[in-house]
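Standup notes, structure subgroup. Blocker cleared on the magnesium ion input:
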Amino acid sequence: MKKFVNDPKQFVPEMLTGIALANPDTLRYEPKYNLIMRADAPRADKVSIIQGSGSGHEPAHVMVVGKGMLDGACPGDVFAAPPMDYVYETVKLLKSDKGVLLLVNNYTGDRMAFDMAKEMSEAEGIKVATLFINDDVAVQDSTWTVGRRGVAGNFFVMKCVGAASEEGAELDEVVRIGEKVNSVTRSMGIALTACTPPAKGSPLFELGDDEIEIGVGIHGEPGRRRAKIVSADEIVDELLGAVVPDLPYSSGDRVALMINGLGGTPISELYLLYGIAHKKLADQGITVARSYVGEYCTSLEMAGASLTLVKLDDEIERLLEAPAEIAYRVF
Amino acid sequence: MKKFVNDPKQFVPEMLTGIALANPDTLRYEPKYNLIMRADAPRADKVSIIQGSGSGHEPAHVMVVGKGMLDGACPGDVFAAPPMDYVYETVKLLKSDKGVLLLVNNYTGDRMAFDMAKEMSEAEGIKVATLFINDDVAVQDSTWTVGRRGVAGNFFVMKCVGAASEEGAELDEVVRIGEKVNSVTRSMGIALTACTPPAKGSPLFELGDDEIEIGVGIHGEPGRRRAKIVSADEIVDELLGAVVPDLPYSSGDRVALMINGLGGTPISELYLLYGIAHKKLADQGITVARSYVGEYCTSLEMAGASLTLVKLDDEIERLLEAPAEIAYRVF
Amino acid sequence: MAVDLAGIERVVKVIAQTAVDNETYFGELDSVVGDGDFGYSLARGFEIVLADWDDLDRTDAATFLQKVALIITGRIGGTSGPIWGTAFLRAAMTVKTRETLDGDTVVAMLDAAVEGIKARGGADVGEKTLLDAIVPMRDTIAARLTEGASAKEIADAAATTARESAEATKSMQAMRGRAAYTGERSIGSVDAGATAIGVIATAIAEQWA
Amino acid sequence: MAVDLAGIERVVKVIAQTAVDNETYFGELDSVVGDGDFGYSLARGFEIVLADWDDLDRTDAATFLQKVALIITGRIGGTSGPIWGTAFLRAAMTVKTRETLDGDTVVAMLDAAVEGIKARGGADVGEKTLLDAIVPMRDTIAARLTEGASAKEIADAAATTARESAEATKSMQAMRGRAAYTGERSIGSVDAGATAIGVIATAIAEQWA
Ligand SMILES: Nc1ncnc2c1ncn2[C@@H]1O[C@H](COP(=O)(O)OP(=O)(O)O)[C@@H](O)[C@H]1O
Ligand SMILES: Nc1ncnc2c1ncn2[C@@H]1O[C@H](COP(=O)(O)OP(=O)(O)O)[C@@H](O)[C@H]1O
Ligand SMILES: [Mg+2]
Ligand SMILES: [Mg+2]
Ligand SMILES: [Mg+2]
Ligand SMILES: [Mg+2]
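Run returned:
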């Protein structure tokens, strides 16, 4: 394994320390719960927005804490949902009169930790709602009850509920918006390489020099099927072919298009994919009105990309446009 | 080779097409010269800032075109300085009464193309200045005349001259600022893996599973020496040990600290390095007043990172803080 | 008389030590069609059980088990935290109303744990989870008890069944947890959670030697 | 009488074709201590020379060479564009004042090219660049001319010297260009530019067969 790491067990705490040191004025770090929270949270006039999830998806979610996005993120270790305590203590630290919204990427472990924490918080009189994000079309939800996974589309849910809560919207309203955004968001990913959790020290799966995994999640778990590497055009066809018909997105729709890097793919390749997808959507009469190209939800250093579409309406577009200030930034 | 690519010869044009499609209102693309330029440039009341360099360093430089940064970037192919024509035509398209500033990462090929283009432009009465960026301490400049290389520190030069030119500063003043920033900026990089130019299809060098290259540049060329992989702490010591004494940066200084990813290293690892470096600088009495963590100047999909320090003064800090809007963005 | 605390302690310690010792192995198992964190998660939690060992409240066996359950729930991430935490909590509640740590008590504790796991994760036998090792193991224990076998014999038989049942998950398709996302590709490899139960049961049986 | 256009054309075409044919090989050479783009850069430029071939201005040999130089300078990136472009431009200027494409003219063209390359890139012989193949080759041609050798003999000797001189760059430390950044590590591998000169000179000599 070649990574910038000291003791692998300290990988997450040391990363969180870096985030905190880089943003001393705006963020606060609670090491006991892997918690990165806004220094000015909780605010009585704002619903608190909390994400958990595992680590290894950075910038999601610890680097998107800030004005107009999350109030706090309390990830578990790499690829592990947070222990229930982390969520429960985070809710207590961030509780607000307006309520707390827990954003949960839809996985068994995350659901259980957040459900348990919600129950315990409610028993203490805290107003809590949960919202499960499940944008991944690679997974069909007929056979197993937990259903589709939450992947990079979670960015759009976070952005919109973050903006709405910043404007002072009530919990119900914030939940309505988040559910709407989730309901019009679909994603699909492709991996070119596996990834290596620091504590494991070796790749989670082996891919041949000419192989790709189609329909991967964001935890280094294998995808739905393996295929030979093909051209960027064909890869975009594969992704759009899965995503577009699923909602479906149709001629006349305005959409946001995200090409998300999974961690090891340079932004040059992501923009190349973006250009192809933008044109192919235009050919279908679908207008890309907003573009998102870069890393939003990664799988450690996995090379690969996911494509996300969000069907826009005036409300969503306005919330996506609203200003936000987070640790993940250029300047 | 596993990359998102169609015909490798079209790698750069297809990437540039993606950038243009993602930013239809703010950017213009001139395919003949690999040129990405601001849609509102040139402006008679503003010095035009132009970068060239090779491709493969994205977001530098084609994705940092925009308000407060570059007016145009006309890269060559992957790792190749732009042909002289690209620069010359770009200067003609972006010429302004206030003048044109050419930012050149200090490499033989880049210097020659920009010098020739400058001569030809001046012959046509265009006011042109060049500024060579050479922040890399890995290269000593005693033996060969072209001297030190320009690497990720170029971001700070671009940011400051971009901000100054946006404020309407005259060419001389913009050059003074750029030269000052360059003179207080030092960088050093370490690679964990080699990188693969699309047209080559195989890695530029081979690194063993437990080896790193110390003092690499940003073109996949080998570094100054090879070593066994060590802990993140020791890597930061190595980088700071080369960078800090070079200017030198001393106790009492306020600095900007950049941990730049070389393309394949996830931001989690970059923040881990950041935290370590921030603390070690504090131990030496050096205050990190501004932080930059992420990808600024890459080497395709190379895993690795570089560390850059900029000694701050009030003027530099003000220019770094000034607003900017570029294609490389989160929201 | 309350259930013998020493007996509970001994079993818990074996479980904790086995989880810590098998971190890498359990992680490898979870890498095949999962995300590789199972070994790490268990080890980080049970490591704390061992570290806090001397300070755990030992008012009675139930209280002790409850404290262990709290550490697990609070400190283990992923699916395993809630699942294993719930199992320990339910077992603790069973012990509360029992007098001795005999075979019947063990079966009752396992029944409670199984119900807790089912309630928490919605899984049932045959869906390729740790239930596919625990439930057959529980049945073996119950059957041998009726036959009047010795504690040692029962422990050995339980371990054998747990191991064999874990091995049998190979042919199952995962219907729960992260492995389920891989669909039919999950067939052909054993379930990590079930295998862990087999390893732990074996370690427990070895204590009787 | 002006210099024979056909002769110039033939040599330029061989150079262009050789650059295109050796894209991968030249790229590999530049990968050892450089950035691997040398083959790609040359090929992309000379590809255009070949594509535009029929439309190039053939008013006279000097004009023709000048047009080629413009394509090279304008379309080849990296260090090679300015270096090779300058070399062709200087050679074109030499031809302007010459009557025939004889041995003396060739030597004069090479001298002009060498001066151009030195002026443009600041390098000199012994610094591990293409100069280390061109300059010895030029000296061989001049020497054989004095001895009264035939054109074919001279071309063969030039090719041999270019190849041997390129090979001899192996023991040099790079003092110019990107390879110089690797310091002593550049010792032990041939220079890409010098080797290209050897390959091209060999291809030209083969035309005389
Ligand atoms: N819904 C469920 N109910 C019970 N056990 C489950 C369930 N889902 C998964 N498991 C068990 O958990 C094990 C994986 O644990 P862990 O790695 O902690 O989960 P994950 O990483 O998927 O969150 C599986 O091998 C399986 O035995
Ligand atoms: N200053 C220089 N003067 C003349 N030739 C040079 C100089 N620097 C490098 N070269 C030649 O150029 C070759 C590399 O060309 P190229 O790959 O285009 O350059 P780069 O990628 O370094 O910009 C070297 O092998 C060497 O022969
Ligand atoms: Mg997990
Ligand atoms: Mg180059
Ligand atoms: Mg797991
Ligand atoms: Mg080169």
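Discussed briefly. The pocket of magnesium ion (ligand 6) is lined by residues D 30, 34-35, 37-38, 78, 178 (CB under 6 Å).
Next: hand off to the docking folks.
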